[in-house]
Design goal:
Radius of gyration: 19 Å
Helix content: 40-55%
Distance between the termini: 51 Å
Number of strands: 8
Number of helices: 8
Strand order of the largest sheet: 2-4-5-6-7-8
Oligomer: single chain
Order of helices and strands: EHEHEHEHEHEHEHEH
Length: about 240
């Protein structure tokens, strides 16, 4: 990550996320672009004077606003924004304020384009940061059910009922086998307690891989997708039973 100073200037010189979305769309593939959140991006940087780089947020936000605007103009309806800083330990008051400012700014541009924003942590639970995360303006919240599933009851009780819930029931790192029966118990619990909430089944974390040969998926990605398909089939079967 770069080293920042008070003179650092942020400028969008290209938009590979939009370009990849458009390329996939032209091939008939609907994708959900993934962005590293602005607060987490700055938190991973260094400052020459030793102060918190998140203090430069106001300089960076216009770039994110421009990225989202271009994605929406290209026909994108969903964007996943990952903020791993929210699962890395308790956030300071200053970073909580920065997170609120960032998400309100992004939500404002998204609402003007019918663009939905999904909040994703960095893997594991939000813990003490959970109440603050749930207060942010978002259209969907991702929960890592493999390593942070204990937070589900609190999420069901306090999350905005209009917010979609993305359940990460399959290990995105392909290290822990998927327990389909446990996944279905969670899903049935949500069906009974929040029948109107939309639930989306996902991997527990953002999947990262490079497909070098351009043809075959790596084994770990294939295994994750296979487990997702198993849970999906179980949901369909349960729907017929109910």
């Amino acid at each position: 990550m770069p080293e920042l100073t008070d003179q650092t200037f942020f400028h969008l010189c290209c938009n590979p996320v939009r370009d990849a979305f458009v390329d996939a769309w032209q091939r008939g593939i609907a994708t959900v672009p993934v962005l590293l959140g602005p607060v987490s991006f700055l938190a991973a940087c260094d400052r020459t004077d030793g102060t918190d780089p998140v203090l430069l947020l106001l300089k960076l936000l216009p770039v994110y606003v421009e990225i989202l605007h271009e994605l929406a103009t290209a026909g994108c309806f969903w964007v996943q924004i990952t903020e791993p800083v929210t699962t890395a330990g308790p956030m300071s008051k200053e970073r909580q304020t920065a997170m609120e400012l960032a998400w309100r700014s992004m939500a404002e541009v998204a609402s003007g384009h019918a663009l939905s924003l999904v909040f994703v942590g960095g893997g594991g639970g939000f813990w003490r940061n959970l109440p603050h995360v749930m207060s942010l303006p978002m259209n969907g919240l991702h929960i890592d059910m493999v390593r942070g599933g204990a937070e589900l009851p609190s999420v069901l009780s306090n999350l905005n009922p209009r917010c979609d819930l993305l359940l990460g029931v399959v290990d995105g790192l392909n290290r822990i086998p998927t327990d389909v029966y446990s996944a279905m118990r969670w899903i049935d619990k949500i069906r009974s307690e929040c029948p109107r909430r939309r639930v989306i089944i996902t991997p527990s974390t953002t999947m990262r891989f490079i497909n070098k040969d351009g043809r075959q998926l790596p084994p770990e990605v294939h295994n994750t997708l296979s487990d997702l398909a198993k849970v999906q089939r179980a949901c369909v079967a349960a729907a017929f039973v109910h």
